[in-house]
Amino acid sequence: MSDIIQLLPDSVANQIAAGEVVQRPSSAIKELMENAIDAGADHIKLIIKDAGKSLIQVIDNGCGMSVTDARLCFERHATSKIRKAEDLFAIRTMGFRGEAMASIAAIAHVELKTRRIEDELGTVVEIEGSEVIQQYPDQAPAGTSISVKNLFYNIPARRNFLKSNSVELRHIIDEFQRVALAHPNIFFSFHSDGNELFHLPKETLKQRIVHLFGNNYNQRLVPVEETTSILNINGFIGKPEFAKKTRGEQFFFVNNRYIKDPYLNHAVMNAYEEILPADTFPLYVLFIDIDPSKIDINVHPTKTEIKYEDEKAIYAILRSAVKRSIGRYNIAPTLDFEQETGFNNLITPKPLDEIQAPTINFNPNFNPFDDGVKKHTRSYIAPEQVERRSGIPQNWDSLYQITETEEAEQLSLLPAEEDAKSEAEIIQPSDQPKKQFFQLHNRYIVSQIHSGFMLIDQQAAHERILFEQFQQQLMNNQGTSQQSLFPQTIELNPADFALVQDILPEIHALGFQLRPFGKTTYIVDGIPADLENINESQIIEKLLEDFKNQSDLRLNKRERLAKSLAKNASIKPGTKLDNDGMAELIDKLFACESPNISLFGKPVIITYTLQELAERFGRII
Asked: Which CDD domains match (predicted)?
């Protein structure tokens, strides 16, 4: 039997390894931008087309590469960051594994243009699928420009698994934001299909956060700063009232490297304990500076996981720093032991015997219909004078007699055979009063039935009604809209703006009228007619948050959108309803296809029978 084990060709090995490093276009962008930062660039430009599927280009003004380095950088395990194994414990650069460029070149068409400042000519290298097509000298600006075209062209299975352009663009924006947040001292620009999404000058960290997420974040940030012998912490956290239902605005950076760490996230959430609304997540952008020898970042190819030498101490310091900032800036209620109390005794209280209870004076002879003229003698006043003086018509009770007479005359004009029938129709509403409902704690509706009574969760019932109504509108594309008297402007971050573009036809089908106004702004001209007394911008923001937060893969895009809007537009607990409102709600509920089950799989109606009530009271029916 012949030998069956053999070495794989370099091209095949590179494609296999590329799956660990480059999972989608955003992964390639992260590696290229980090290489530009390691090259010392202070001006980085990102250009993409078709959400990175057709083109990814990163241009920087870094140190550039020589002719030999330009060719060698595409070899596996070729790096300028480390020289020996001991260097792994003193890493301050973004990259060090030497796999990114080789992985990208194995699955795309790559063109590299680079020139050092001291060189007169630059170098151009063209590679397709790990194979060097050509290399030649050419004019080029100082720095490096890398163009990645047709990503995954030779791995069709991986390319077919890529999501839509809007989804891939959101992943790219997430990676861009992480790199831009970690380096506010570097200029960044981001162009997508000819449109500039970001233009970030060199600035402070707070300014960078505001430029990335919007001007309204300026009032939401609280600074955090802590210096210890183990580590240093600085950055910003968000105020509790601005916490969101979805994750995505939580950033940890260890030595300027973005990481994902549930353990550290738990420390921050623990600091917000009892002051954060339920099921919400606060904003935080926190930087941890620690001795590289105390951590290990060579854990995962994406370098987003880190092992710590003393993670319990880091947890305690982080929690303490966040909690101190929350108390220092009066976000949480605190006791001020340094308050000046010398002014509290300036007002001397009166003795108890001098305190008198307040009294009420009134005139027992006051007549609101009096014209103000005092009457010294009693005299006869004619009825017409009373009417003229007081403004009260006389014989007012005869008005009801006239009405009854007119109704009797109208009934007498009907034919004899229709007289009894019509009179019965007129009297019927007063003889058969409407069914009465009762509201319990402004949350539940109680309705009597023949076998007992039923208890209805008014919010869950309204959510079910709206969900099926919105589903029907999405199916027929006939959502009714109510024009806004004063159109509102809603400013979104680029990721949410891309999300709205992806679901804009469905939003219009629900009755929203949106039109783009600038790069990341929409004008709201109308909202669904069924939504009353709702702020347009707030309902759209909540709609997007819940739409992103849903993880039920069984629902398609339209069902997720209808569910999100129904949840936010429904009546909330504590809303008082009159008898007509409760009756209308119950009628619409029982007209639904699934009136008994809420949108979240919980019961809407609970029925109690007379037998159950009798058993609770110890009786037998």
From this structure: HATPase_MutL-MLH-PMS-like, MutL_Trans
CA distance 586 to 448: 12
CA distances to 394, 474, 561 from 557, in Å:
70, 11, 6
DSSP designation for 342:
G
The DSSP call for residue 85 is G
Strand 284-290 relative to strand 250-254, pairing: parallel
Q: Which of 156, 142, 145, 149 is nearest to 127 (CA)?
A: 149
Half-sphere exposure of 591 (CA within 13 A, CB side): 12
List, for residues 411-456, the tens digit of each pLDDT value: 444 444 444 444 444 434 444 556 778 888 889 999 888 888 889 9
Is there a contact between 138 and 123 (Cβ–Cβ < 8 Å)? yes
Q: What is the pLDDT of residues 274-317, one digit of tens each?
A: 888 777 889 999 999 988 888 777 666 666 778 888 889 999 99
Euclidean distance between CA atoms 104 and 17, whole angstroms: 10
Look-up: residue for tokens 């891939």?
168
Say which DSSP state 441 is in: T
Band of pLDDT at residue 11, cut at 50, 70 and 90: low
Q: How far apart are the first and last CA of the chain?
A: 87
What residues pair up with 115 in beta bridges, in sequence order?
143
Specify the DSSP class assigned to residue 89.
G
